[in-house]
Design a protein that fits this description.
The structure is a single chain. By secondary structure, the protein is α+β, with helices and mostly antiparallel strands. The radius of gyration is 19 Å and the shape is globular. A five-stranded antiparallel beta sheet has the order 1-2-3-4-5, with helices on one face. Helix content is 24%, strand content 27%. The longest helix is centred in the first third of the chain and has 14 residues. It has two helices and five strands; from the N terminus they run αβββββα.
Length: 110
């Protein structure tokens, strides 16, 4: 745990472990429920998907999208989760109208 001077308010994003924990919770709310967090000195790593790992260090969440490094302030885990979800969340086959086949019924309705 990082030492904090007496009288200084506790700011979770200054602690990479805590900031990553908050990101993990935000991602769980977005449907990413199988995550793994590992903490080290001055940094924390969150494995979200086989092709997505998020590092938290120096006040930033850092990950790669399509070969490019993306960073987002660690004081906004909900915003980072939203960005990650927009890029990595793929619709389930039953939610995608293009992949849902028409199933004929005996109904007389048009």
């Amino acid at each position: 745990m990082l030492s904090v001077p007496t009288g200084m308010p506790y700011l979770p994003w200054r602690d990479p472990c805590e900031a990553t924990r908050l990101l993990r919770y935000a991602l769980h709310r977005q449907g990413f429920t199988h995550t793994y967090q590992s903490n080290g000195t001055g940094m924390s790593v969150l494995s979200v998907l086989t092709d997505l790992t998020v590092w938290c260090k120096n006040g930033l969440f850092v990950w790669h999208e399509d070969g490019h490094e993306v960073s987002h302030p660690a004081d906004d885990p909900v915003g980072a989760a939203r960005l990650i979800s927009r890029h990595y969340r793929r619709p389930a086959p039953e939610d995608d109208p293009e992949t849902t086949a028409f199933i004929p019924t005996d109904s007389l309705r048009d």
